[in-house]
Design brief:
Elements (H helix, E strand, L loop, with lengths): L9 E5 L4 H12 L3 E6 L7 H9 L8 E5 L5 H11 L5 E4 L7 H5 L1 H21 L4 E7 L23 H20 L2 E7 L2 E2 L8 H10 L3 E5 L5 E2 L2 E2 H13 L5 E6 L5 E2 H12 L4 E5 L14 H7 L7 H22 L1
Parallel strand pairs: 1-2, 1-4, 2-3, 4-5, 5-6, 6-11, 7-10, 8-13
Antiparallel strand pairs: 9-12
Helix pairs in contact: 1-8, 3-5, 5-6, 7-9, 7-11, 9-11
The chain binds nicotinamide-adenine-dinucleotide (NAD).
Length: 334
């Protein structure tokens, strides 16, 4: 990829200490960009994992400025923008309460973070005349569709979890600010992302740990649910494409692999890669879960130069390599 558009640019990244965020920071820093990271290092999973994710970046305080701020706190966010706002070229907004199932337990927290937090950011951008945001949306906005592949112009008015509803609301807010204030916004609908440093609550990471330790894994449903698993490097290509994109004021793009895989097949690939058999504890499908995700990526291919190429048979071994290297730390932290 041509990294020149990143050289000398300043990005305010929210959630830069998280799984996707820390990979993105790495990509931006290696392209010569500077980062203002806004992350509250909350305990959705062990904050020490997030601290580890950014430890290397903190060595250069000129290029990576770390602001421990909660995006729900409008005053604290205003202070960040008062200090750095005039230097920011784009905001890459990844901070969120992620995950479908936990959103059923704490819907208020999801709403406050993913909707009010997004509004707080947009307000600061308006005040400081920052013209562009790239936003992490989610495949979950498509709800329980069974007519793959999912296209960006399809109806997203029927989300089936609080998490999905908050991501759809986030997209709506982005459109509103783009319309009212002429901001350029790009919403990226990520389809289940995996790779090194993946969140410990996500299936690939959780299953790897449990199979490796000889413990049972909970398989929800009969294993036929389909997910479009997307490798982190492919997602980063999509995000950098969105950073460069400047054709229209408001646009939504799917970022998936467009190769859905059944849960059963995922477990087989993990077993094969780990060289161990899974002990399967079958459970009913969980409320909020969807039967399938599958991205139509023709729009991102055309406009972002997005060209994902990682099958799970290739990506899972990379993930497991990382897992094995970090297993002593992971055992302590999860
Ligand atoms: N990982 C996936 O498969 C996936 C799929 C679809 C969408 N997404 C979206 O991508 C983004 C990144 O996901 P991830 O998997 O890297 O998750 P993550 O939890 O690893 O990263 C999110 C980061 O945001 C920070 N954060 C959360 N609430 C905050 C707040 N109130 N103030 C400041 N910082 C806060 C967290 O501390 C964390 O470092 C999220 O918006 C998520 O909804 C992820």
């Amino acid at each position: 990829m041509n990294n020149r558009p990143l050289q000398g640019k300043t990005f305010l990244v929210t959630g830069g200490a998280g799984f996707i965020g820390s990979h993105l920071c790495q990509r931006l820093l290696s392209g010569g960009a500077r980062i203002i990271n806004v992350d509250d290092y909350n305990n959705f999973y062990d904050p020490r994992i997030k601290e580890d994710n950014v430890r290397g970046f903190l060595k250069d305080s000129e290029t990576f400025i770390d602001c421990r701020v909660d995006i729900r706190d409008a005053h604290a966010l205003a202070d960040v923008f008062a200090t750095w706002g005039s230097q920011v070229d784009q905001v890459i907004h990844l901070a969120a309460r992620a995950g479908v199932r936990p959103s059923l337990m704490e819907p208020q927290l999801y709403l406050e973070t993913n909707v009010n937090g997004t509004l707080n950011l947009l307000e600061q951008m308006r005040r400081h005349d920052i013209r562009k945001m790239v936003f992490a949306s989610s495949s979950s906005v498509y709800g329980n569709r069974t007519d793959p592949p999912f296209r960006e112009d399809q109806d997203i008015s029927k989300p089936v979890s609080p998490y999905a509803a908050t991501k759809a609301m986030g997209e709506n807010l982005l459109h509103t600010y783009s319309h009212l204030y002429g901001m350029q916004v790009v919403a990226l609908r990520f389809f289940t992302v995996y790779g090194a440093r993946q969140r410990p609550d996500l299936a690939i990471h959780k299953f790897t740990r449990l199979i490796d330790q000889g413990q049972p894994i909970q398989m929800f449903g009969d294993g036929s649910t389909l997910r479009d698993y997307t490798y982190i490097e492919d997602i980063l290509d999509g995000i950098t494409g969105a950073i460069k994109y400047d054709k229209t004021p408001f646009e939504v793009f799917n970022l998936g692999e467009s190769q859905p895989v059944t849960l059963k097949r995922l477990i087989e690939v993990l077993e094969h890669t780990l060289g161990k058999c899974a002990i399967i504890d079958r459970q009913p499908l969980q409320p909020g879960d969807v039967m399938m995700t599958c991205a139509d990526i023709s729009k991102a291919r055309q406009h972002l130069g997005y060209n994902p190429h990682t099958r799970i048979e290739d990506g899972i071994p990379h993930f497991v390599d990382w897992y094995r290297q970090t297993v002593p730390a992971a055992a302590i932290l999860t």
